[in-house]
Amino acid sequence: MSRVNMFQTGIHFNIEMYWAVWQDAEMKDSQLDQMDAAATEAAAIMKALSNPARLRLLCALVPQDRSVSDLIEILDAPQAYVSNQLARLRVDGLVTCDREGRTITYRLRDDRVRPVLERLYEVFCSED
Question: pLDDT for 58-104, tens place per residue?
């Protein structure tokens, strides 16, 4: 399954489903297949988030859409590097962009990623 298709399957990670495996040894094969697909999708998203630069780009997009020049400034990195990371996030289906003249503006594409990023911020970036 390609990276783009994996993010667009609509299969959602469900912790109750995983807990049921341990409680019900007679789980149907279709449920196990669905669980495997959800775990694969969640792992692919986590892989995309595992790169610090991509994570910082995604975090910058949580509060608002941003232009490429804004993202270059936030990352304090060369334009080519930021563009490569944004291209990877586009292929992964996590961001999308709009072009208006010479300005390209990025936004989060997959709404399931926003709460993950917000929770990561709470855990790792809060002042507590």
Answer: 999 999 999 999 999 999 999 999 999 999 999 999 999 999 999 99
Amino acid found at 71? L
Q: pTM score, two decimals?
A: 0.73
Kindly provide the residue ranges of all beta strands, DSSP E only, lying in 21-120, ordered along the sequence. 66-67, 95-100, 103-108
CA angle, corner 3, sides to 30 and 57, nearest 5? 125
| CB-CB contact of 40 with 6 (8 Å) | yes
d(C-alpha 36, C-alpha 34), whole Å: 5
Q: Detail the DSSP E strand segments found in the chain.
A: 66-67, 95-100, 103-108
33 contacts: CB under 8 Å, gap ≥ 6: none
Tokens of 70: 């804004």
